[in-house]
């Protein structure tokens, strides 16, 4: 099976989606369409980590806060296999109801 790497711009677009809602919707739709045309990304292809590589308190966006995460099944719509809620990958897309930079309030107990 050949690697199916996401386009290099996807992680950048995912990061921009934190601030620009229109980019969030486009990135989510693009990733769903790519998976619908083929298969889910492997953890290696997605750059998945079982725990966020960012220091605690500095960043609160992990798999549990991603639009693709399914908590009951501990799965992801676009990455195959068992997914940890505190995992992370660069294909992360903010949930529509999560305001930009809401992690700052969570970091300071808000």
List keywords for this structure.
110 residues, mainly alpha, High potential iron-sulfur proteins family profile domain-containing protein, HIPIP_sf
Structure description:
It is a single chain. By secondary structure, this protein is mostly helical. The chain has one domain (9-107). The protein is 32% helix and 4% strand. The chain contains four helices and two strands, in the order H-H-H-E-E-H. It has helices at 9-16, 21-37, 43-46, 102-107; strands at residues 69-70, 75-76. Strands 1-2 form a two-stranded antiparallel sheet. Helix 1 (9-16) packs antiparallel against helix 2. It is globular, with a radius of gyration of 13 Å. GO terms for molecular function: electron transfer activity. This is High potential iron-sulfur proteins family profile domain-containing protein.
Uncertain stretches:
none
Tell me the Rg in angstroms.
Answer: 13 Å
Approximate shape: globular
Query: In percent, how much strand structure appears in the residues?
Result: under 5%
Mean pLDDT: 83
The largest sheet, given as strand count, sense and whether it forms a barrel, is: 2 strands, antiparallel
Helices, by number, come to 4
Strands of the largest sheet, in order across it?
A: 1-2
Q: How many separate domains?
A: 1
Percent range of helical residues: 25-40%
Element order: H for helix, E for strand: HHHEEH
SSE-based structural type = mainly alpha
């Amino acid at each position: 099976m050949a690697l199916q790497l996401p386009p290099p711009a996807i992680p950048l677009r995912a990061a921009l989606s934190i601030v620009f809602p229109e980019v969030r919707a486009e990135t989510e739709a693009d990733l769903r369409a790519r998976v619908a045309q083929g298969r889910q990304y492997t953890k290696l292809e997605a750059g998945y980590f079982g725990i966020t590589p960012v220091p605690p308190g500095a960043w609160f966006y992990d798999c549990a806060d991603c639009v693709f995460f399914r908590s009951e099944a501990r799965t992801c719509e676009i990455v195959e296999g068992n997914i940890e809620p505190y995992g992370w990958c660069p294909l992360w897309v903010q949930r529509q109801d999560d305001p930009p930079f809401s992690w700052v309030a969570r970091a300071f107990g808000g």
